[in-house]
């Protein structure tokens, strides 16, 4: 007795959907934790700065080296996930990262802190592993949503901003269990324990028979797509929507405290108002890209980013007019207060959240057989943007004297991305329809002459 076609096809489909769902949710939770560990120095920075007596520039390098190591290995990590399976790679990464995370609590010098921050940054490479893993499991029609939901694990950047200040304030100057010091040093210990627990959970709940789309492919074949200019263009987009997001997540608590005089707790909460939409809207961006196309999402992203950064980069001040008699008058006074500043930062986060998903929606469509290496390279270069931008913020502020120069840097970066994308779209349209390439307006359609329609023609 043979089973009916419907029955034989339903069970595997159901199993695939179940496996895809377990991979999606387990990897998202794991990535959220890894992202929290990766960017924990954004909120720990101020107490670290006070204890070690660091300048703003020195402090910026603590976050920067963590971001650097969280970007360097994304390409090989994505390829490894395609070759041996995301389940193995992500589980090992969780366990390995727990070691330097714990050792951060023992740092006793700036040099040691830099080394450990670099090692902890390895957590950031979990992104390309999860992207390749989810792309291998998710059906094509849901890839945008699945990758967007996984990417929403970026919200982990706000975890430390919520739990950090209360724990630091409650335990500062005390010794907790097993001789562990309280204050900021307790946070990395908590994360080390959670990383080990999550490694076990991930291994248990995800399918043991993993998918490895690159298991039999030669290395040269896997790397071949990286020579295409399109990959590097996507990478620049990701610098703008993700690298800038990482940089601002680490930079904004200090920015709020220095420029608005708020406490560490308040600065963390206000920064979270930027992080939440930049992370939680990523599934929305994936859904939008699935439904209406990633290019439309990118246009909207860059336009909103240009407007918001253009307003945020305006320095407080006024126009001074010198009259012929030597007198001066002041006009058009301008100052950005904390409420409109936070509202614009929130909108900037919304745009980045949609844009991050749209960039990665392109990858499985253009490179269905090379999501691991292409996604790894795009993620690596985007993450390197998060490494270079915080020191660039610090140096441009020191050079110009304007704290708002932070957003001038992002304005220029976004403008370059938008111009490059638009020129590419125009060139594509020109290649497909050269007969209308020189028209400023679309040609007006004209009705065909009656004689042109033959009798019996189907219209």
From TrEMBL:
It is a multi-pass membrane protein. GO terms for molecular function: nitrate transmembrane transporter activity. It comes from the Bacteria. Keywords: Membrane, Nitrate assimilation, Transmembrane, Transmembrane helix. The chain crosses the membrane at residues 23-44, 89-105, 111-133, 145-164, 184-205, 236-256, 262-285, 297-314, 334-354, 366-389, 401-423. One of its GO terms (cellular component) is plasma membrane. It is found in: Cell membrane. It holds the Pfam family MFS_1. Its main location: membrane. One of its GO terms (biological process) is nitrate assimilation. Residues 22-433 form the Major facilitator superfamily (MFS) profile domain. Belongs to the major facilitator superfamily. Nitrate/nitrite porter (TC 2.A.1.8) family. This is NNP family nitrate/nitrite transporter-like MFS transporter. It comes from Ornithinimicrobium humiphilum.
């Amino acid at each position: 007795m043979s089973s009916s076609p419907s029955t034989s096809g339903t069970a595997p489909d159901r199993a695939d959907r179940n496996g895809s769902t377990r991979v999606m949710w387990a990897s998202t939770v794991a990535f959220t934790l890894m992202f929290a560990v990766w960017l924990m120095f954004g909120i720990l920075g101020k107490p670290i700065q006070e204890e070690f007596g660091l300048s703003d520039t020195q402090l910026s390098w603590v976050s920067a080296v963590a971001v650097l190591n969280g970007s360097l290995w994304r390409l090989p990590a994505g390829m490894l996930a395609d070759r041996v399976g995301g389940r193995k790679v992500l589980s090992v990464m969780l366990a390995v990262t727990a070691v330097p995370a714990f050792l951060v609590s023992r740092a006793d010098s700036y040099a040691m802190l830099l080394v450990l921050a670099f090692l902890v940054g390895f957590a950031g490479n979990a992104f390309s592993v999860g992207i390749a893993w989810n792309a291998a499991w998710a059906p094509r029609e849901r890839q945008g949503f699945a990758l967007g939901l996984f990417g929403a694990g970026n919200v982990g950047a706000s975890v430390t901003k919520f739990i950090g200040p209360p724990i630091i304030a409650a335990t500062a100057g005390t010794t907790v269990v097993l001789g562990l010091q309280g204050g900021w040093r307790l946070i990395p210990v908590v994360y080390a324990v959670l990383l080990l627990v999550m490694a076990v959970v991930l291994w248990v709940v995800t399918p043991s028979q993993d998918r490895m789309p690159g298991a039999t492919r030669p290395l040269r074949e896997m790397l071949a797509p990286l020579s295409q200019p399109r990959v590097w263009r996507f990478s620049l987009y990701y610098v703008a929507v993700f690298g800038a997001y990482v940089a601002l997540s680490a930079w904004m608590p200090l920015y709020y405290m220095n420029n608005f005089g708020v406490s560490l707790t308040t600065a963390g909460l206000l920064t979270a108002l930027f992080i939440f939409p930049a992370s939680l809207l990523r599934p929305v961006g994936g859904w939008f890209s699935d439904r209406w196309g990633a290019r439309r999402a990118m246009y909207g992203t860059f336009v909103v980013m240009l407007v918001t950064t253009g307003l945020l980069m305006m320095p407080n001040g006024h126009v001074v007019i010198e009259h012929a008699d030597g007198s001066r008058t002041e006009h058009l006074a301008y100052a950005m207060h904390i409420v409109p500043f936070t509202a614009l930062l929130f909108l900037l986060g919304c745009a980045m959240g949609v844009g991050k998903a749209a960039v990665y929606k392109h990858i499985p469509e253009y490179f269905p057989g090379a999501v691991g290496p292409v996604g790894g390279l795009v993620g690596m270069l985007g993450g390197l943007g998060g490494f270079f931008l915080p020191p660039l913020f610090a140096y441009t502020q020191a050079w110009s004297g304007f704290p708002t120069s932070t957003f001038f840097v992002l304005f220029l970066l976004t403008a370059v991305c938008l111009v490059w994308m638009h020129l590419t779209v125009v060139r594509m349209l020109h290649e497909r329809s050269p007969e209308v390439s020189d028209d400023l307006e679309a040609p007006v359609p004209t009705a065909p002459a009656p004689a042109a329609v033959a009798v019996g023609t189907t219209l």
